[in-house]
Amino acid sequence: MANKRDLFQRRRMRVRNKLRKMAGDRLRLTVHRSSKNISVQLIDDVQGRTLAAASSLEPALGVVGKNNLEAAAKVGAAIAERAKAHGVEEVFFDRGGFLYHGKLKALADAAREGGLKF
Fold first, then answer.
1. 111: closest CA among 37, 34, 30, 45?
2. For the segment 22-44, what is each residue's pLDDT rounded down to a tens digit?
3. Coiled-coil segments, which residues (predicted)?
């Protein structure tokens, strides 16, 4: 019988493998959500480096300590702005093993409104 962690790992690898098949030259927008914070990175898998990152832990965003949809939306808007500064418009959204609802959906919608396409 699989526990919650095993199911999470299966979902995570299923999402990652699908992204690898479609990868091409697009960058990957990776999300990590903890119980208190949310962070996102813009990763270039070809060169193996992170171009931009945003987190709810950044004081500049003004959401430190807030665990809600508003904080996720601000992080999404920040990563969209930083991606555009690097000249990136199209990315793959790597949600990891997290389900696409709530904070992840708010972050994705804000990033789309900021100009990212995925």
1. 30
2. 777 789 999 999 888 999 999 99
3. none
DSSP state of 45: T
The per-residue pLDDT for range 58-88, each reduced to its tens digit, is 998 887 767 789 999 999 999 999 999 999 9
Burial class (CB within 10 angstroms; exposed 0-12, middle 13-18, buried 19+) of 11: middle
What is the Cα–Cα distance from 1 to 91, expressed in whole angstroms?
36
Domains of the chain, with CATH numbers?
4-113 (3.30.420.100)
